Amino acid sequence: MLSIKLLFASSTPQVALLGLLSFMLLPGCSSSPSSTDTNKQITKTPSPDGMDKNIVDLVNLKAKGANNSTSSSASSTDTRNVYLEQASQRLADVPASVLSQYQQAISHMKNQQWQAANSLFDKVIAAQPQLSGAYVNKAIIAMDQLQLDQADALLAQAIAVNNNNPYAHQIKANIARRQGHYAQAEQGYLTALTLWPQYPQAQLNLAILLELYRGKLLQARQYYIAYLVSQPNDEQAKRWLAGVEIKIQRAGLTLPDNANGAG
To answer: Model's pTM, two decimal places?
Structure first.
């Protein structure tokens, strides 16, 4: 029987915007799919310190001028991140006291001091309710405590104040997938990839979704390939790619000659 847990694919840490603002994707939120062709469970290897890292900042980016289309090509060479592109100018308006509280909350998250972190994020939101990063981090905490409905609501708030936050869309898609809302999850991953076309977690999670739940094997293959462009040492993902290629052949489909072509 297929067993799927919520996946946050591990990735190489990105450079923190202004060296200040990061969040932890916590161990309780990290796991991976099992193979449908064998009965062996495949487990994603965590990063060395047991936590996956990524970046979220305190910026409320306006939708004006952003590409909000939900179409995405797996083979995109676009390196932009709409969210981070517009961040610096917005951070200038955030008071130093709010930044300090936010950073303290991050430290509490790293130490798994959830109540203390939540309390500080609440203060950040009270002072700057338009800043989406605090909602996303509170959602991460809620997910670690298996409070998926609460996490989903927090991510909806993050998206409401900043529709250009790819992290919020990607994590919300993970929740949708776990709850069996596969079309919604696919849309969420595609939205995240529109905002950040080379977002590794979204690429890998979308590939898994397309393969296991949407029956879109050729597209899944292309997103595995796209993910491996930036994560070439992920041996597990290479095995998943090989597995989906076997499925494609068994289905009588033709593998594209161009491995980097659109799915």
So the answer is: 0.74
